[in-house]
Amino acid sequence: MKLHFLLDANLINSRQKDNTVNELENFFQKGNIELEFTESAYNEASKGSDQRADKAAEYTWCGATNQFGGEDYWRKVIAQAVFPGQGLTSNQKNDVENLLVAKLTDAIFITRDGASRRQPRGILGSRTQLEELGIKVMNPEEALNLAQNEA
Fold first, then answer.
1. What pLDDT score was predicted for residue 94?
2. Which of 41-50, 111-120, 130-139, 140-149 has the lowest mean pLDDT?
3. Coil, strand or helix: which one is 57?
4. φ, ψ (nearest 5 deg) of residue 118
5. What dihedral angle (degrees, nearest 10) is formed by the CA atoms of 38, 86, 89, 24?
6. Backbone angles phi, psi at 108, to 5 degrees
7. Sheet holding 33-38, edge to edge
8. 3-class secondary-structure state, position 33
9. pLDDT tens profile 35-74
């Protein structure tokens, strides 16, 4: 079974300047991994320049449709794990939706969001809490390393 990765909008890489994302895209183009966006990440990545929209259009996307039951429960649990005790901004709601889709599709969510001085928590800073919920998150370098080891 191929590794299934979901890209965050912050990894659109429309100018091809992120060599790690370039390598992940090469693995995808060779058929070694699945690489797509969530619906909310796709919508966010498509905004801005035509170059971003064209790059986003190269990918498929998947979303949560509230058909399985329990999606609202998982949204609340994920929000509490990543953004405890906060009212959510629209960007944070998108993050929660992205993580929900990763859980529902058993995919690994790739982002650069969090675990930094500017944003100590965020998605990557909440990795332990998310793993306890069955959600895997990685930065692009970790995802590329995993893809290389699995190839």
1. 93
2. 111-120
3. coil
4. -70, -35
5. -30
6. -100, 125
7. 61-62, 33-38, 3-7, 108-110, 136-138
8. strand
9. 999 999 888 888 877 788 888 878 878 777 676 678 899 9
Kindly report the length of the chain: 151
Closest CA to 51 of 97, 17, 26: 17
Q: What HEC string does 64-122 produce? A: CCCCCCCHHHHHHHHHHHHCCCCCCCHHHHHHHHHHHHHHHHCCEEECCCCCCCCCCCH
Query: Residue 7 carries which side chain, given as an amino acid letter?
Result: L
pLDDT per residue as tens digits for the range 81-105: 999 987 899 989 999 999 999 999 9
Tell me whether residue 140 is exposed, middle or buried, using C-beta atoms within 10 angstroms of its C-beta: 0 to 12, 13 to 18, 19 or more: buried
The pTM of this model reads 0.90
Nearest to 17 by CA among 65, 57, 55: 55
